[in-house]
Amino acid sequence: MRDLRIAVIPGDGIGKEVVPEGIRVLEAAAAKHDLRFKWDEFPWSCEYFLEQGRMMPVDGLDRIRHHDAIFLGAVGFPGVPDHVSLWGLLIPIRRGFKQYANVRPVKLMPGVPCPLAGRQVGDIDFIVVRENNEGEYSSIGGRLYEGTDQEMAVQQTVFTRQGVDRILKYAFELAQSRPKKHLTSATKSNGIAITMPYWDERVKAMGARYPEVKVDQFHIDILCAHFVRNPHWFDVVVGSNLFGDILSDLGPGCTGTIAIAPSANLNPEREFPSMFEPVHGSAPDIYGKGIANPIGQIWAGAMMLDHLGCPEAGASVVAAIEKVLASGLRTPDMGGKASTTDMGRAIADAV
Ligand code: ATP
Ligand code: MG
With a 6 A CB cut-off, is 271 part of the ligand 1 pocket? Predict the structure, then answer.
């Protein structure tokens, strides 16, 4: 029997509805695979912010530092600006715990209507790896000459050798471990002529260490077009913080619904806990109706099992999702009538 201690942050909105379904399914997987979960719940959220003036306590990171992983729903709610939930909770956890690899599988699932004409299950099955700690999302910069006609805003992109090399190493290792051994790098070295050529140079240097991996690169603009026109080309796609952000929403968008897409914020060295969450947000428009699709959360749970060294348990969860989708059960976002709980129960039973 293996014990796994998980910090649970349901957060806001439908995060509070889908997290319990994720736990339900993970409990089913645990029963089958000789695992025992201990769930410690933390109420950090926009509601907490409105009461306490912060998204989480000052020593928040210390309270979850020794957990095996973090299982997050979603944060953000009307009335609290997005930058508060982002910079008050998500970014401190991602940066504080060096979760520099944001990994998002993109897979067309059986029975989910694909918005790309003619695409079938099997055609779209790749992983986007986004650099999660530096790059374009730096806080270096500011406004100059305010109030004059010379007024300007500048913000610097930061690519450190350490930061770029560690995400590339992660992406190359991942590509090497997959049957196609194919890595695509997102760049824009024609327009962004200082930082992106550096990124390209590091891709080339890292590639030399992985001779079995086939590498190609595309400028971000045409890469977006290829995601839509030729999604079957891709296996592992790596991008900087900004490009990875764009691609990791576009990818799931190409498979029908972001509601089923999972996201892992990984500290590959396992020095700190990694965090697992659905790609979608707190969806205030449907909160409280019991109709949120819990699959993104459940699939994030499967990624958590993989990361914690229980790949058979993780695979059993993904297989259960596929089986239930293939059986025709659908929440309203996929054109059906099933509730959040119906879907969670069906997947737990299938596990
Ligand atoms: P964030 O900035 O936190 O990512 P967002 O503004 O991108 O949030 P979401 O909260 O992801 O928005 O919601 C976008 C749309 O998708 C909304 O109409 C929402 O109802 C729908 N949606 C999101 N997640 C789900 C889900 N799990 N089930 C059903 N619909 C969903
Ligand atoms: Mg969003």
Answer: no
The pLDDT assigned to 23 comes to: 98
pLDDT score recorded for residue 124? 93
Q: What is the pLDDT of residue 260?
A: 93
| CA 19/CA 1 separation, integer angstroms | 24
Q: Retrieve residue 338's tokens.
A: 């099933």
CATH T-level assignment (fold) for domain 125-254:
Isopropylmalate Dehydrogenase (3.40.718)
| Residue minimizing CA distance to atom 7 of ligand 1 | 281
For the chain, the domains span 1-104+268-351, 125-254
Share of the chain above pLDDT 90, in %: 92
Q: How far is the CA of 280 from the centre of ligand 2 (A)?
A: 6
In whole angstroms, what is the distance from residue 162 CA to residue 158 CA?
11
Q: What CATH topology corresponds to 1-104+268-351?
A: Isopropylmalate Dehydrogenase (3.40.718)
Cα-to-centroid distance, 204 and ligand 2 (Å): 32
For the CA of 281, the nearest ligand: 1
Mean pLDDT confidence for 147-162: 96
Query: Of all protein residues, whose CA lies closest to atom 9 belonging to ligand 1?
Result: 281
CATH topology match: 1-104+268-351 vs 125-254: yes
Whether residue 302 has pLDDT greater than 90: yes
List Cβ neighbours of 19 (8 Å cut-off, separation of 6 or more): 8, 10, 11, 71, 73, 297
- ipTM > 0.85 (yes/no): yes
Q: Report pLDDT for 121.
A: 87
